[in-house]
Amino acid sequence: MNTPNTPDSTTSSESVKAVSSPNVRPDPRLTVAGLNHGFETDDGVRTALFSGLNFSVGAGEIVSIVGRSGAGKSTLFNLVSGLLSPQSGRIEVGRRADGGAGRIAYMLQKDLLMPWRTVLQNALLGIELYRKVTPHDIARAREMLARYGLTSVVDAYPQALSGGMRQRVALTRTLLVDPTLVLLDEPFSALDYETRLALEDDVMALRQSSGTSVVLVTHDIEEAIAMSDRVILLGGRPARIEDSVDVKLSTQGPRTAVSAREAPEFRTLHKRIWGGLRSNTIHHAGAST
């Protein structure tokens, strides 16, 4: 899913100033400031989901968001992408390198490939939503599909592909629109372990090739640590940032999904995040009884 966005496109009429905190980055590609949002149940009970939430994502930064089920992670993505409008607060997407309006690409767990379109046609769909496809776009799509090992299936249909191949097509579709920010909502959770590691490497390579910023929602702490520069732990109701963990790993050679997991700091980071997640889950369960 590709969502056009511009700075202030999801801003409420209420003016909110950014709050200085360790979660605010210079030259941000995403800024969330003073975010307030909630919902009303069928019996009329109003529940605050976010209250004064603040964080930002820097240029080329990969940030993972973890938290218990129901913490509001997917709702946060829907707010950032513009699928939902915040009740108050400010959500801004930074401008592109060429000065153009910021653009968000949203990749879900389901690849959402259209079965009547070929691999190449599916890859180009995001561009079609913005404008007419050019020969240059087709050449770029073929080049990117080749980079992901899909040259032999560019004219095949989705039903002929494995799960990992389908997700690579979806990733190609996501990246071809040259997004300022990529939102990944557990896109690899249904894949086998080997394929997940390969796709984690693909996403991390974005930093080297394009400097794209990425926000990942995942329940997998190992995945969050291996891929990210920072892991944000959401908890409570209303949701707040319980912890923000800068991920610094000493890897042998370039950082990959495998070498990150083998780094000496990995277990310590995992223990910290798991401890915070478990503590928050127990606290929430106790508050609900």
From TrEMBL:
SMART domains xref list: AAA (SM00382)
Ranges annotated as biased composition (Low complexity): 1-15
Chain ranges of the ABC transporter domain: 30-261
PROSITE patterns in alphabetical order: ABC_TRANSPORTER_2 (PS50893)
Keywords: ATP-binding, Cell inner membrane, Cell membrane, Membrane, Nucleotide-binding, Transport
GO molecular function: ATP binding; ATP hydrolysis activity
InterPro entries per record: AAA+_ATPase, ABC_transporter-like_ATP-bd, ABC_transporter_ATP-bind, P-loop_NTPase
Region (Disordered): 1-29
Family according to the record: Belongs to the ABC transporter superfamily.
Protein's recorded name: NitT/TauT family transport system ATP-binding protein
Organism: Paraburkholderia phenazinium
